[in-house]
């Protein structure tokens, strides 16, 4: 007799039933996958493996299409900058260049230019000529003219795929600018991208010629909305000239030929009160003069121009560095130390600006040594500066001890590899007297009386007469507190007083307070607010006062009382 199930029916057990149902469900899913549709929807928490494998493929975006969309998304910002006459939108477009420049190729730039400008656009032809894409047609998508097979395949996808929301809020700029004349700001922005590509690809001669044409076009347009873009164009124009042979400080270097153009741009920027171009061109001119060792002309430029107070922080840091370099060469070490200290404090903290921080710190260390001060050891322990400052660390060690032999050995080891390359070799040669003075100071602190012969031996001097002359000069300059006995041939040191009884701690404290207050004032000046916001606040305040007068007048006339106001009158 066959056994029954626990429920009394002839059905199979639950375990066997579930196995059969699962097998049937898998068969249905497999059949539905072949037909292209799902017959049984998955339960909550279940994931179809075919869909999970297909999702990453759908999310993939062609880098050419993405880069093109990122470039075109800045056109909307430039349009808003022109309509609202607000330079903040232009600065946002310029800041996006750092993320785009690594993906720039001549095919991508030519594609954007062809899709943006009409067929009769002369500036677009200049841009294509700089990229070597002269034969590319304008006003339509480059299907057959593109040398890249991927661009021919991806062109329809670029037309159907809109830019992502993070790329820009207003995306109709790409569709509208192809049918009508584009604004000059878009033309100059694409010209800057062409400059960036030519500079990164080491095409210095072509970049120099293209930059000259671009600066002439900016001067002919005469639009105030091009101020921020003009500053960037002149920046790359100067960089291209520095890379062409013969290199500075040769008198035939191209950096000398661009000086009239930079001076004309500076004059125009001052008349228009163009802060961005004015600050950039002043820094470029100082860099230009210093590259050819024209220190007097650089000093005249500083004395006859006024650097704008509300300039960008990066330009202020560069200006302070070049100003400190000029003052150091002119033997004005106190002012040079102030300017270089401010430059290192204003230096950007991003990894891309480590080079500027290293260069400014190197010059600052040399100036401190020339002033007779010894830099702190913590400066050399910074991770971003430790390796670059190794030769200067050995130099500081030689100066601190007053060992003339180690000082000359350090100079011989790092002259060609570091000091000449950094432009500090001529200043370091001045440190020889400081090394001798430091050695004399250390001996005056260690010995109450020491003979001139011992000084001569310790400092590796040629004769006792030279040692006597150096000691006498150190006493006259106030380096040491001592007396010189020429008859018996020795130097006698005076007792050292308490340094806290002097004015030196108070002066150092005063310098720190002044630096903090100057930083606070500059931070307040650098704050930016929306345009005409104060007018809106004044209008709202005026309307509130008028309402208060009307309500007070109605109360006086007896038309209203405090109960009618609902308690709001007390709050006002």
Task: Describe what this molecule looks like in 3D.
- By secondary structure, the chain is mostly helical.
- The protein has four domains: 63-269, no CATH class; 339-429, no CATH class; 430-522, Winged helix-like DNA-binding domain superfamily/Winged helix DNA-binding domain (Arc Repressor Mutant, subunit A); 541-571.
- Helices cover 66% and strands 2% of the residues.
- It contains 29 helices and three strands.
- It has helices spanning 14-35, 49-59, 63-84, 87-95, 97-100, 106-116, 122-131, 149-160, 173-177, 184-200, 204-221, 227-242, 254-257, 259-272, 275-291, 295-304, 313-329, 333-346, 354-370, 390-401, 404-422, 425-429, 431-446, 452-458, 464-476, 504-525, 533-557, 562-565, 568-571; strands at residues 449-451, 482-485, 490-493.
- It has a three-stranded antiparallel beta sheet with strand order 1-3-2.
- A hairpin with a 4-residue loop joins strand 2 and strand 3 (490-493).
- Helix 6 runs antiparallel to helix 7.
- The longest helix has 25 residues, at 533-557.
- It is globular, with a radius of gyration of 37 Å.
- The chain starts with 13 loop residues before the first helix and ends with a helix.
- The model is unreliable at 1-20, 32-47, 142-179 and 568-572 (pLDDT under 50).
